Write a sequence for this structure.
């Protein structure tokens, strides 16, 4: 393990760096999500962040960026290993979604875009 893996404060700083990069370049309009993801990973690698850590940080930052305006939230306390509980605090609705359905209709969907570093 290196210092980046072991130091949560450093990871928070790097996560903030990844988030700032994504926000700065999201509005470029010329970049699709895959290109933006790769550029953000390379940006973190340019400051000596190992690729596996950079990918994890950018994935987290990307998810936060894309869902930041959505009021629905995962209720971690109410969820289990097999059921994800989603709440909408504005209207008080709650949904219990089996993980199997998430895998079937989201993760394994042909239209699902998997973001990962792609070398040219």
């Amino acid at each position: 393990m290196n210092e980046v893996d072991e130091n949560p404060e450093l990871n928070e700083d790097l996560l903030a760096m990844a988030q700032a990069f994504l926000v700065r370049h999201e509005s470029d309009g010329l970049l699709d999500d895959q290109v933006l993801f790769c550029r953000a990973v390379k940006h973190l690698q340019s400051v000596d962040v190992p690729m596996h850590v950079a990918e994890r940080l950018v994935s987290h930052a990307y998810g936060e960026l894309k869902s930041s305006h959505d009021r629905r939230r995962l209720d971690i306390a109410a969820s289990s290993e097999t059921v994800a509980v989603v709440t909408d605090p504005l209207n008080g609705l709650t949904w219990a979604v089996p993980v199997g359905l998430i895998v079937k209709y989201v993760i394994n969907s042909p239209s699902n875009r998997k973001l990962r570093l792609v070398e040219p």
Observations:
- The radius of gyration is 16 Å.
- Residues 3-67 form one domain.
- The chain has two domains: 3-67, 73-107.
